[in-house]
Design brief:
The protein is mainly alpha-helical. The protein folds into two domains: 82 residues, no CATH class; 57 residues, Arc Repressor Mutant, subunit A (Orthogonal Bundle), CATH 1.10.10. It is built from eight helices and two strands. A two-stranded antiparallel sheet has the order 1-2. The C terminus is likely disordered.
């Protein structure tokens, strides 16, 4: 029976270690996975994994702390990138004080049945800011029992005309 070549058993034998393989190796090594399990996951021989571990010993402590810090740093970078992306999507008037004109426009259009999403776009604010302001103005209430918002009936309000 002929012997199988290393490449037929381990598809990545002799190949360069790409960053993805090194990251997976680091994650599994820090998680105390067995050499054989790491080898199977990476398609490499157990000897290649042992060599990688000995090469990495200069970089990491026996508990894998430095490697773990690098993995955590990568996760932090992902979170920071998502945060930066969300900052770019903020409306023009995000976190600005509501002016009397904004309140009047909000009240007028809400009374006409314009949705909170459309009001948010029109007023250059977030949908939650619009809902919060409607609540603060007494135009919208929240029912804790049914967990829904509702508008108060028209006769509830006394509307004063603005002086001309």
């Amino acid at each position: 029976m002929p012997r199988k070549s290393m490449k037929s058993i381990y598809p990545n034998a002799g190949k360069h270690w790409p960053d993805e393989d090194i990251a997976l190796f680091a994650k599994m090594y820090v998680a105390n996975e067995s050499t054989q399990k790491i080898a199977n996951a990476l398609g490499r021989s157990p000897k290649a994994i042992i060599n990688q571990i000995s090469d990495a010993e200069e970089l990491i402590t026996p508990t894998g702390e430095r490697l773990l810090k690098q993995i955590k740093l990568a996760k932090v970078n992902i979170v920071m990138a998502r945060f930066a992306e969300s900052q770019q999507r903020k409306p023009e008037k995000h976190r600005e004080r509501w002016s009397l004109g904004d309140d009047l426009e909000l009240s007028l259009h809400f009374g006409k049945g314009v949705s909170a999403s459309d009001l948010a776009e029109r007023l250059k604010r977030t949908k939650l800011a619009v809902i919060g302001r409607l609540h603060a103005l007494g135009l919208l209430s929240f029912d804790k029992d049914t967990m829904t918002y509702y508008t108060k009936p028209q006769h509830y309000y006394k509307i004063k005309k603005a002086p001309v």
